[in-house]
Write a structure and sequence with these properties.
alpha+beta; 8% strand; HNH_nuc
């Protein structure tokens, strides 16, 4: 029996090239993978609030919801995040690793996380007064301010306003000084200088999850002495009559233009802001052109240079 003769045929290209891929779909998948990978490594595969770990219990939370493109653009326009930040969905600095429990409470606006420039830390405030969250109130969460991938400070500030909006009749809360780390954080966890150099693997035993108070004596105590800053850089919480050497109170920053401006100035000099500028800009021009580009995206540099010029 003679073999059948096979003749190649031409593809029907009337509806387009048959082997193309959806470029947008590939981009979304790639961006999502990068979002989760960066957060896993940065946050050491643990909930930054309670220390819980395990792929089945952890979730990659968006600080500004992934569908709020307009809100993200407003934050860019008003100087709360860099103009060159990635999209609200794919920017890892708009994400944080939380267990399912705290992710749900975060999205239900039970608590907020506030950046404290004096101590260069992020503190959890249980604004809702929900009893379960009291164990975490006033303690620093495990985010490294020196890591260029740390969440944008301004994104947390917007989330704080939503918490305040859900509980409008509740007064501002005090936190005790000195500020302590969350109970699960050991001394080895507090060495944030190495946080963005390793692969994020944990050395603690599996019992270091939420609700284990056995390490309370090992909690690292943050220095009550503010880091050296110029008077203009100091937040105004110390000027609040409810603030003393033993307590600190965070008022609504949007009700105090001076405090809000101080916070925004602090945001713009952090490593995460500078890293976003470096990643998003093209540096193919001359040295003079590149300096001008950098100054354009870090506004506080222009303000400081203007002040120096006026003094001269």
């Amino acid at each position: 029996m003679a073999a059948e003769l096979w003749m190649p045929t031409v593809f029907d290209l009337s509806s387009g090239y048959p082997f193309t891929h959806d470029a947008r779909a590939i981009s979304v998948i790639s961006g999502t993978d990068a979002f989760t990978t960066v957060i896993d490594t940065r946050d050491k595969k643990r909930c930054v609030v309670c220390g819980e770990r395990g792929r089945s219990v952890l979730e990659h939370a968006h600080i500004v919801p992934r569908v709020e493109d307009e809100t993200w653009e407003d934050l860019r326009h008003h100087g709360f995040i860099p103009l060159l930040a990635k999209s609200v969905q794919h920017e890892a600095r708009n994400g944080v690793l939380l267990c399912k429990n705290h992710h749900g409470r975060f999205e239900d606006h039970e608590f907020y996380i506030r950046w404290v420039p004096e101590f260069q830390i992020f503190v959890l405030i249980n604004h809702s007064r929900i009893e379960y969250m009291e164990r975490f109130h006033g303690r620093a969460v495990n985010l490294d301010p020196d890591d260029p991938r740390t969440p944008f400070h301004g994104a947390f500030l917007i989330q704080e306003m939503r918490v305040r909006g859900r509980w409008p009749l509740l007064r501002d809360r005090q936190i005790p000084l000195p500020i302590l780390w969350q109970i699960w954080v050991r001394h080895s966890d507090v060495d944030h200088s190495q946080a963005h150099h390793g692969d994020g693997e944990d050395k603690e035993d599996d019992r270091m999850g939420e609700g284990n108070d056995s390490t309370s004596d090992n909690s690292a105590m943050l220095s009550p002495t503010p880091t050296p800053q110029s008077p203009s850089d100091q937040p105004t919480s110390h000027d609040d009559p409810n603030t003393s050497k033993n307590f600190m109170t965070f008022t609504n920053p949007f009700a105090n233009s001076v405090e809000l401006d101080t916070l925004k100035r602090s945001f713009a000099v952090q490593p995460n802001w500078k890293a976003s500028v470096m990643e998003g800009e093209s540096w193919e021009g001359s040295a003079v052109d590149n300096i001008a580009k950098y100054r354009r995206h870090v506004p506080i540099l222009n303000e400081d240079l203007n002040v120096m010029g006026n003094k001269e």
